[in-house]
Write a structure and sequence with these properties.
It contains five helices and seven strands; from the N terminus they run βαβαβαβββαβα. By secondary structure, the protein is of the alpha/beta class. The chain has a seven-stranded parallel β-sheet with strand order 3-2-1-6-4-7-5. Helix 1 runs parallel beside helix 5. The chain is globular, with a radius of gyration of 14 Å.
Length: 149
């Protein structure tokens, strides 16, 4: 199981997702470019004391990321045809989240094996990126029996 962020724009969201990765022992993949400067110092600041406890891979672009995919790619998107409670997760899935302002472009949608959406109350548009990542990861870990002990 992996979490991946497509061209994230907000350092705080990346930091929160890095903490998810550390706490639940899930690698994080970041697809560049990012919307903010990134360095070891910035990473340590955003992930705080969890920086050395998370496995992070950076990819120069989507093609470099896709070349390394070992399993299925599940895109979490407001345009998803499969509701999160109806999605069936596998242990080697990668859960991909689009950028905060634009989501994922059409070519990413086309590459995804499934497009999954988190159901929301009528009239509401979307969740914060890191909140959505936490909700989706929790369901994927529950289904695959991969919660840490």
């Amino acid at each position: 199981m992996r979490l991946a962020l497509f061209q994230p724009e907000i350092a705080g969201n990346v930091g929160a997702v890095l903490r998810l990765g550390a706490c639940f022992q899930v690698p994080i993949h970041i697809i560049e470019p990012m919307g903010f400067p990134w360095s070891d110092k910035a990473r340590k600041r955003s992930a705080m004391d969890y920086d050395d406890k998370v496995d992070v891979a950076r990819h120069a672009d989507f093609d470099a990321f896709a070349a390394d995919l070992p399993g299925r790619l599940l895109l979490l998107t407001t345009r998803g045809g499969t509701r999160l409670p109806d999605a069936k997760f596998l242990p080697d899935d990668t859960l991909l989240f689009g950028s905060e302002s634009a989501g994922a472009p059409d070519f990413v949608h086309a590459r995804a094996d499934f497009a999954v959406r988190i159901p929301l109350a009528a009239g509401l548009r979307s969740l914060n990126l890191s909140v959505a990542a936490g909700i989706a990861l929790a369901e994927a870990l529950r289904q695959t029996g991969r919660w840490p002990e």
